[in-house]
Amino acid sequence: MAGQNGGGGSVQFLFADHVLDTDRRELHRGSEAISVEPQVLEGTGQCNTLFPRGVPPEYVAGAPMALDIIKCQLKPIDMNDYKGSFSTQQRARLAAIFPTGVCDWSKKGVKQMKSVPWASYGPSPVNQVFDIQDRRRHGDDDDDD
Fold this sequence. Notes:
The protein is of the alpha+beta class. Helix content is 13%, strand content 20%.
């Protein structure tokens, strides 16, 4: 896969004999437009068929589609949250893997802030959410509150 500028800010990605044009969202084979459609999370169109989008594990686990929770709040394991049934051994293994609980996706994340597009971690002050150069913040790895 190679990216190249197709003019006018458009970027084209080459996949063997296919081109995906990010401006017009078209899939081309040579000069033939195969499809004019957006690629969506669970779509069945030509773009999704040829280039399926992976589903992030946290989304499968119940996270909101925005995927804006970096660290989730935990809750005790509740077997009623799961569709399948678990054997006693499977329940014990689940408890051993998640001894402090599982993500509670109904709550905001720990210290969650409003999403900032093109977030900066310094040194630029534009859209800065955290300054990595601020030595006063280093050494505080207690992020449970």
